[in-house]
Write a structure and sequence with these properties.
232 residues; alpha/beta; 6-stranded mixed beta sheet; two-stranded antiparallel ribbon; 8 helices; globular
Length: 232
């Protein structure tokens, strides 16, 4: 049984969904420290012929609080402003009609807890892309919360009875295959292949939010993209 563990990211790039699709169970790592300037509540879209940052406003907390302690800021029409920016960016895209109602349902969701707000978004997009992987919150898994880094990942694998762990390729320098093997776990790294598609008539900008992928590609093509990776 293979698992993957990732922090909750808002509308992440397609590699995140490749990872979800590649495993039997996916763990949203929500009981770790908030990363200021990270991608938990923001991402990049294609707007006015360039990449543009979109950010979901959250209530202020301490920089050392856990991700699952943060709340969405529902006041001042923040979510509607977020949605309107997405609409302006993609209203002329080929798959706006089927995709925008999904995004509207996600963005205007009244869930206050940021982790569960993002969890809802992942579930909705997974449904659209026919990804059936079960998702868990790390905060609800019985484990040793004193452990950090690689030791914490191995502990979660054992708690989930996993014999395989897949991590994005960026973790090559963080995790040791021999150490995982000594704990009965096969460690692999997912390397997304070069995925390109037509973004209007402009030069392709890679690595944008899954929103961009969904707006410029039909569902069947995206499902094929989910398998466009190699395990190393």
């Amino acid at each position: 049984m293979k698992i993957a563990i990732m922090q909750p990211y808002l509308f992440p790039y397609i590699g995140y969904f490749q990872l979800i699709n590649a495993v039997d169970k996916f763990i949203v790592h929500d009981d770790v420290k908030w990363i200021k300037g990270g991608w938990i509540n923001r991402n990049r879209i294609f707007l006015n012929n360039k990449e543009e940052l979109i950010t979901l406003s959250v209530k202020k907390r301490g920089n050392y609080d856990n991700i699952n302690q943060f709340e969405v800021l529902h006041e001042q029409n923040n979510q509607k402003k977020f949605l309107n920016k997405v609409r302006a960016a993609y209203i002329k895209s080929p798959y706006f009609s089927p995709v925008f109602p999904i995004l509207e349902k996600i963005i205007l969701n009244d869930e206050s807890n940021l982790t569960r707000y993002i969890l809802f978004s992942l579930e909705q997009i997974n449904t659209y892309l026919q990804i059936g992987t079960e998702i868990f919150l790390s905060s609800e898994i019985k484990k040793n919360n004193e452990l950090k880094a690689q030791a914490r990942v191995i502990d979660i694998c054992k708690a989930m009875n996993a014999n395989g762990y897949i991590n994005p390729i960026g973790g090559v320098s963080l995790y040791n295959k021999d150490t995982f093997k000594q704990n009965g776990i096969n460690l692999c790294f997912l390397n997304t292949k070069n995925i390109q598609y037509k973004q209007c008539e402009n030069k392709f900008i890679p690595g944008l939010s899954i929103i961009d992928v969904m707006m410029f590609n039909d569902k069947e093509e995206i499902i094929r993209m989910l398998d466009s990776y190699e395990l190393v």
